Amino acid sequence: MGRQLRILFPGAVYHVTSRGNERKNIFKDDMDRKMLLKLVSRAMKKFGFKVFAFVLMTNHYHFLFKCENTNLPLIMQFINTGYGIYFNRKYKRSGHLFQGRYKSILVEHGPDIKEVVRYIHLNPIRAGMVEKLTEYEWSSHGQYNGTRENGIAAPEHVLVYFSETMKDAAEKYEEYMAEGSWKDKDGDVIGAYGRYIIGGDDFIKKIKLMIKDRKLCAEIDNRNDLKKAYPAHEIINAAARYYGMTENELITKKGKWNPGKRVLIYLLNRDGGLNNTAIAGLLNCLHSSGIGRIILKVSKEITVGKHARIEVNGITKIYSRQNEVVNSQLKV
User: Fold this and answer.
1) Mapping DSSP to helix (H, G, I), strand (E, B) and coil, where does residue 134 land?
2) Of the candidates 188, 200, 217, which has an alpha carbon nearest to the alpha carbon of residue 5?
3) Considering Cα of 157, then 159, then 210, then 8, what sign does the dihedral take?
4) Where does a domain end: 223, 257, 282?
């Protein structure tokens, strides 16, 4: 299984899950569930984060956290280590309680968050534990529909996407849950770019720009997709504008008649995250091995020569400037 990518920044929202080792139960009675919620409550006071939603199953749990600081790893260490010690002492066992590291998915704090909350709350129904959500005590669903006043969750931060008034929002939330009872996909929630990011196109682009220059571990799933910070069409458009050509001319002209194509190939790889085969297919040109040689050559020219560096920086500024407008409008 691939390593998880941790994307940390102040105000980030995460869908966090932890599963029992060998998929064994991590809760044996209600006292165990109460202890985990108590540890989460303590962690909230210690680390200053919010719980938007949760569900406790038998061998795993789901939480939706909003972290005001970049301290998700510390939060999870506090909760899972503390609960593991409690569980091992109570049941006179030793060894790891949880299966590997926790999983975390970055979620945009916007309308898409409703789907994540629905996915979390519908777990007991999908597992066949109950027929109605009102029959299951160990989730934040009751706080959302108004049947439970107290709890660790802060549903108002999600209900606002249903309606500005809490009563109307709770009713629309119930309707939304009913629509999804048997329509949600089974298994883990998977975002547009693997198991790491859920949100709109602008949000995903913002996050990918944040990690564009990070070296991602080879164990990370979909790391090539995560490196696609800029869509190919934006890079092609910017290069065409820089060289004063149409996009079709830039793509189709060959050889010495089109020196800018070499720089385009380099940028499609560096900032578009495309591999050699994908670039060859997109531009309908050289074999993938030839693409690799061009990328290497332009890279060396940038290091030792001024001209190639000027071209690359000029094109990059064009498509970077287009995204600065998007980023300035996006609150994360």
Assistant:
1) helix
2) 217
3) positive
4) 223
SS3 state at 190: coil
Radius of gyration of the chain (CA): 24
3-class DSSP assignment, residue 294: helix
Identify the domain boundary among 168, 201, 223: 223
Pairing of strands 197-198, 103-107: parallel
Residues 39, 183, single domain; the answer is yes
Same domain, 44 and 170: yes
CATH of the domain at 73: 3.30.70.1290
Residue with tokens 């070499």: 262
Is the separation of the CB atoms in 221 and 195 below 8 Å? yes
pLDDT for res 189: 42
250, two tokens: 């830039």
Q: Residue 307's pLDDT band (boundaries 50, 70, 90)?
A: confident
Give the per-residue pLDDT at 232: 87
Residues facing 191 on adjacent strands: 194
Contact 229, 269 (CB under 8 A): no
Under DSSP, the state recorded for 256 is: G
